[in-house]
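Second opinion, please. Pick holes in both lines of this record:
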Amino acid sequence: MTAATLAAVSAVLVLSGALHAATGFGFALLSAPILAALLGPPDAISVIVLTGVVVDVLILGAERRRPSPSWPEAVGLTAWAVPGLVAGAWLLSSLPRTGLQLLVAGAVLGGVAMRVVGGRRAAASPHRGWTRAAAGLSSGLLSTSTTLGGPPVVLYLMSRRLNPQTMRDTLVVLSLLRTPPSVLALVVAGALRWRPEIPLLWLAVLAGYACGKWVFVRLDAGRYERGVLGLLVVAALTATVVALV
């Protein structure tokens, strides 16, 4: 990695870390397409997996509060994500991703539209096991194949009407629980690549976390939900652009 490339990657990770710290998800929304162009898709996914975990650890361990995730949701979604992680790693090393990315873009936009039409006054959707299973499986599949695994679980958790703190912590716990099987799946598929610059990139992510935490403490529930819905639209557009370019 040249000095110029290292600087560009670091800048991207600062912004990605800030986004993730502010909402609990979204690290790959900004970093995935840019790092794929700078480093190539396999190296980009490896860098995202190995640096994004730093923000998750900081959110749960470095803030002066007791984390308040919904453990049943986090554990249940993780259990369903594992088969998807394995399948996604195989897709990353074996199949073109254009159709998969376009499919997730359409699904995310549809989910956002349903949420907006329903409005915040709508009652929480009744809990059904298949909705958690679908969210977990699709998130796992997309995590290791495209790094865009956040939208399915975000839409699902929004339907559970969690408060911003609980939703953010649940997403972070889910990400941490999913990291070991993600790494294992990528290793087995031969798609995980360690780069010597990773420790330096951790410092960039740390700076991003500090900025994102400052933003989060200033968000009320309404602003948080609007921000999350906006990020989901960005995720769908990102998947579409990356698929078509």
Remarks:
- Residues 164-188 form the longest helix (25 residues).
- The radius of gyration is 17 Å.
